[in-house]
Design goal:
heterodimer; A: about 525 residues; alpha+beta; four-stranded mixed sheet; 15 helices; 21 strands; B: about 325 residues; mainly alpha; 13 helices; about 75% helix
Chain lengths: ~525, ~325
């Protein structure tokens, strides 16, 4: 079965390449699943997963990214970087209009930067090195940085830096602006209707600036809260697209075996979801480096990959996912070796204290995974207590550092400076957020390396720094890296050209078409 | 009777306020808050972001102030604002309430009609194969978990036979009007309403059966028979009417769940009702929305209790209103 899934993944990716050769057909309606129902669609204010997925059709960023994370034109048609790596000049597309027919100009870009600095935590971090934004004319934007910032060209994707209409938000209270409920962007689809609890309806933007795009007439995003019911809705043909994570992993092999069903693991290269166990470095047995190393040997990650994730994952080797820049596997690796784990536990002086394990309350796959890890740890003599929580409880416990071992997965955002460093540098230790250095790891050498890595110029210098950082971290084991996850996108095979960039379905259905 | 109703209504208001305060405190005892949830879902957050959210939700105020504000709102019939859904709570509830009422009233009608019918039949033919069949079926439906029945029904009627839709309230995008629309909603209604009604149907059937068998032994039934009344008349007027009282009590209880009791069914069938709204509000710690649903549900339960009491009297005139 595993082989079959992998094979269909390969076939699907081969097909999606071949699809470019076919002549796209115009028209049609796509039914997709959105899970859970997003709290809003104004992606400058709300950044959760479902919001990004729907809003990627409505809003656009300056750039898009190829599966290899090379920048592609978006609202910017070209860009250049100064010799010293500090000045980035973007030329914008002409003839772009907002959904209310007002023209899009460089003023919107400058406004968006100000807007997002106030409302978007990730953009705020990404823009920390920005000195000023200038708009010499309507179609040119010049970003000047305080110092070179290696990953700068990687922060312009629609979810990270959506471009927001100035004429609608300027001078208003952003959070209570009534326009938030009727989002207006430049994207290929326009917001039409949202029946809360049922569906969100988007319709084709007839004035889209690329001739002939989009091909589809309408997209319906259906809200179906139960995972089994989502699988059934796809099975009975009512749904054409199940974006990654819509169904439980154990349903994936069954669904992909159906006739006329295609599956792809592509479209997650930018996010590269990377899972690990947060180990509390401050207190308890997990504060001991030997104990942490013992955990790495004790957990059978290949079992988790093959059985729990149905082969839809890759064993992680360290802090960086293999899909992002400057990754290396020339580091200390930890194979499944219970005997070695036991020996290390003895060295660590572990005397059977209770260790609290917090699973991620995101459905059954995660629950089963936590049970498997508990079994692994008990096998080497660790006394594990599983703590059950719901999502808000989990957030609070992790943010308050009230755990010993906690499951999580975080996005990597293509570059160690954007999605990796935040989990290991000491300036990111701050109670009250589940997305920083929650484990409390503090190492001045690592702090320095990540600080240098972000601003070193040119890229060859950055590479050297990040290779070193990965070596140190894999020795110290601040967290127990588990798997690089894949969230397969499952579609009917007549849905063509859906996943074309590194953010997959989140980049909208701009190029998708239906073969009837 | 009017005095009775007025007195009950006055009591209801006090109970409702107590419910509001009690629920308010109870919800706040759960770990995590909406700012935490939204920050968590954003995949990245910092202190400023969480603080902004807390301020927006009014969570930066001391708890008594929040409670005072909320109760003040309730008294003026303002249920507050759901920041998560970006809509006034009253509007959200009003949008979703009809779907839930349609579902639960249908389920209620199905379970009451079929339950009493099967119970009567079973009592009438007590000891025969028909009685045994009905009793066994009732036992099965009584004992089987609702979500399992729902999934099996979907598997059978949607996946295998493709007769009925498996999710939603209507065919999205079909834009049916008039009678076609009614048929469409009806088709979507069958599975959830039936699965939801099965449990209570079983209960009514068993209760009607037991109650009728008991009433049958009473002297007035013998008298009626001695008078030479036809059997059908005896069953209907003398036995069933007297046997229905416990069923009415139970139906009153079920009626209380008409508003909020559909969480599982609505989730499995993606029915856009209030039960799901409540469940999601709980998972997202959307305090205003959750409290709003509680308030509406509690008000309905109180109303149904009152109605049940009035029906008692209609069924059995010997019962008097205590004033």
């Amino acid at each position: 079965m595993l082989k079959r899934v992998l094979l269909s993944l390969l076939v699907a990716s081969a097909l999606s390449t071949a699809a470019f050769a076919e002549e796209p057909k115009s028209g049609g309606v796509i039914n997709a699943v959105i899970q859970p129902e997003p709290p809003g669609l104004m992606v400058g204010l709300v950044q959760n997963g479902p919001t990004q997925m729907v809003a990627g059709n409505i809003y656009e960023g300056l750039l898009r990214y190829s599966p290899k994370l090379e920048p592609l034109p978006g609202l910017a048609e070209s860009w250049s970087v100064s010799e010293d790596g500090k000045v980035y000049t973007f030329k914008l597309r002409k003839g772009v209009t907002w959904h209310d027919n007002k023209p899009f100009t460089s003023a919107d870009v400058a406004f968006s930067i100000d807007f997002l600095k106030q409302t978007h935590p990730r953009a705020r971090g990404n823009l920390a090195q920005l000195d000023k934004v200038e708009t010499p004319d309507d179609y040119t934007v010049v970003f000047t940085l305080k110092q070179p910032f290696g990953p700068f060209l990687g922060i312009f994707e629609v979810g990270s830096l959506p471009i927001i209409p100035k004429h609608i938000y300027e001078g208003t209270d952003y959070k209570t602006n009534p326009a938030n409920n009727t989002p207006i962007g430049t994207g290929p689809f326009m917001f039409k209707e949202w029946q809360k609890g049922s569906f969100i309806r988007l319709v084709k933007n007839p004035n889209y600036y690329i001739k002939g795009l989009p091909h589809l007439d309408e997209i319906y995003w259906h809200v179906i809260p139960d995972a089994a019911a989502r699988a059934v809705a796809f099975e009975t043909g009512k749904i054409d697209v199940l974006p990654g994570g819509s169904v439980e992993n154990f349903d994936v092999p069954r669904l992909t075996k159906l006739k006329n069903v295609c599956v792809t693991g592509a479209g997650w290269e930018f996010f590269s979801p990377h899972s690990w166990l947060w180990l509390n470095n401050r207190s308890g047995p997990t504060a001991n480096k030997k104990f942490r190393q013992a955990l790495m040997y004790a957990i059978d990650r290949n079992f988790a990959k093959d059985v729990i994730w149905n082969g839809l994952a890759k064993v992680a080797t360290g802090p960086s996912a293999s899909t992002i820049k400057y990754y290396t596997d020339k580091v200390t690796t930890y194979d499944y070796d219970p005997a070695k784990a036991k020996a290390l536990l003895k060295e660590a002086g572990y005397n059977g204290e209770k260790v609290r394990l917090l699973p991620l309350p995101y459905g059954e796959t995660w629950q089963r995974w936590a049970e498997a890890v508990k079994q692994n740890l008990q096998d080497v003599g660790i006394n594990v207590e599983m703590i059950a929580t719901d999502v808000p409880g989990w957030n609070q416990k992790v943010s308050d550092w009230d755990y010993d071992i906690a499951f999580t997965y975080l996005y990597q955002y293509g570059d160690p400076a954007l999605g990796v460093g935040r989990n290991y540098i000491s300036s990111q230790i701050s109670k009250g957020s589940p997305f920083n250095n929650v484990e409390g790891y503090s190492n001045p050498e690592i702090d320095q390396l990540f600080a240098d890595g972000a601003t070193a110029f040119p890229d060859s210098k950055r590479e050297e720094i990040y290779l070193k950082a990965q070596k140190i971290l894999t020795d110290d084991v601040p967290v127990a890296w588990q798997l690089e996850l894949q969230f397969p996108t499952i579609t009917r095979c007549n849905v063509k050209n859906l996943v074309t960039t590194a953010i997959g379905v989140n980049d909208g259905f701009r190029d998708a078409w239906l073969d009837k | 009777m009017l005095a009775f109703i007025a007195q009950r209504l006055a009591k209801a208001v006090v109970v409702l306020l107590a419910i509001v305060v009690f629920n308010f405190m109870l919800i706040r005892m759960a770990p995590g808050d909406p700012a935490m949830v939204m920050a968590g879902e954003a995949g990245a957050s910092d202190k400023i972001f969480v603080a902004q959210l807390r301020e927006k939700f009014g969570l930066d105020q001391p708890l008594p102030v929040q409670l005072y504000r909320y109760v003040k709102g309730i008294v003026t019939l303002d249920l507050g604002f759901s920041f998560r859904q970006q809509m006034p709570v009253a509007k959200l509830i009003a949008e979703r309430l009809p779907a839930t009422l349609l579902l639960t009233v249908t389920a209620f009608a199905i379970s009451l009609l079929l339950g009493v019918l099967f119970g009567t039949l079973a009592a009438r033919f007590a000891g025969t194969w028909a009685d045994t069949a009905i009793t066994i079926l009732a036992l099965i439906f009584y004992a089987t978990p609702l979500f399992w029945v729902a999934l099996m029904a979907i598997l059978l009627f949607s996946v295998s036979m493709d007769w009925l839709p498996s999710f939603g309230y209507e065919t999205v995008g079909a834009n049916y009007t008039g009678f076609a629309h009614v048929l469409d909603v009806g088709a979507h209604l069958i599975l959830p309403a039936t699965t939801m009604g099965l449990f209570f149907m079983a209960t009514y059937a068993r209760m009607t059966r037991a109650s009728m068998l008991e009433v049958k032994r009473h002297d007035f039934v013998k008298t009626a028979r001695a008078k030479g009344l036809r059997d059908a008349v005896i069953q209907r007027r003398h036995v069933l009417r007297n046997a229905l009282l416990p069923v009415v009590t139970l139906a009153g209880l079920q009626a209380g769940t008409l508003v909020g009791g559909a969480v599982l069914t609505e989730t499995v069938f993606a029915w856009p009702g209030i039960g799901r709204l409540m469940y999601e509000a709980l998972l997202q710690r959307d305090y205003n929305l959750l409290l709003g649903v509680f308030v509406v549900c509690s008000a309905m339960v109180l109303a149904f209790n009152l109605i049940t009491d009035l029906i008692y009297r209609a069924v059995d005139p010997r019962i008097e209103f205590a004033s």
